[in-house]
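Entry:
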Amino acid sequence: MIRTAVIGFGVSGRIFHAPFLAADENYSLDYIVTGNPERAAQARAEYPHATVLATPDELFARELDLVVIGTPPATHAGLAAEALGHGLHVVVDKPFAVTSEQGEALIEQADLAGRVLTVFQNRRWDGDFRTLRRLIDDGELGTVHTFESRFEWWKPQGPRDWKAHAGVAEGGGILYDLGTHLIDQAIQLFGPVARVHADVLRRGAGDGDDDTFLVLAHENGTRSRLFMTGLAALPGPRFHVLGDRAGYTKHGLDAQEDALKNGARPGDDGFGHEPRDNWGTLGVRGETRRVEPEPGDYGEFYRLLATAIATGGAPPVDPRDAVDVLRIIERAHAQKGDLSR
C-alpha cells in the first residue's frame, strides 16, 4: 500500500482528498497534518487509524511514500519542494503554485529525484465535463467555435478564512481559485491558447479579484469564454457550447462536492450522479434531446496515480499542464482589464 499523508484538513483535505484515499485499497491514510485544534479533533474522529500531527516538520521524519498538499497556495511550492527533497511522491492541490517559475522548478526537482509529481485538477473528472468531452469527441457538435463555461457562486459576504486576506502574490482571488479549473478544462478540450483577454472586478482594498471574465483564443480557432464569480445571485448555465452542427447547454454543478460535504462517501449508491433537472440539452432549435451526464468520479485521479507510482508511468495530471494554466493567469493579471477602479 502507498503510505500517505494529507497536509491540511480544510475543505481541500477533508472533502476532496481524505475520503478518496480512505476508500481506495491502494492507499493507507497514515497521517493528517493540521494546526487547527477543531480540525485535528475532526480528523481523529473521522479517521481514527491516522496519526494527526500539528506541523509538516513532524511529518517528514516519518516513513512515507506520498504527500498530498491541501494548504493555501502560497505554501504549495515550499511544501512540495521539501517533500520531494525527502524522496516522496507529491500531489499538490490547485493552484499548483503561485507562479509558473515556481512550478517549473518543482517539475525539474521531481524529474531529478525520479518522483511522481502531479496536480489535483479534479474537475477533469466532473460528470458534466466528461460528458461534454465525449460529445465533442463523437462529433455531436461538429466543429466548436464558442465554448462558455461558468463557476458562479453567491457569496455576497465575500470569501472566508485565508481567502479573505490573500492577495495575488499569495495566490489569492477567484482567478487562482475557480479559474484554475476553468482554464484547465478549456485547454483540455481545445488545446493551446494564442491570446488572452481578461476583465476583472475587485471589491475590497486588496488586489484579489472577486469576479473575472476571460476570453481565450485557442490556436485551433475556438473561443473560450470563462466566467468566475462569487457575486452571482442567479447563476448562468454551467456550459453553453456552440458548434457548426449543434449546441449543448448544461445547468447545475457536478454533484460530488455537495454530496461529500453532506456526508456521502465514494462508493455510496448514486454517488457522482446528477439529478434529472441538471441534465444537459443537445441539438438545434426545434430539435433537441436531453443528455444524462456521466457519473462524476474524482476517485479516478487516485486510481491513475497508484498506477503511475507502481509503474513509473504518466501521472493523472501532467504538472506541465498546470504550469500552462499559471502562465495564462499571469497574462490575465498583467493586463489592465480592471474596470472596478
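The CA atoms of residues 216 and 293 lie 25 Å apart.
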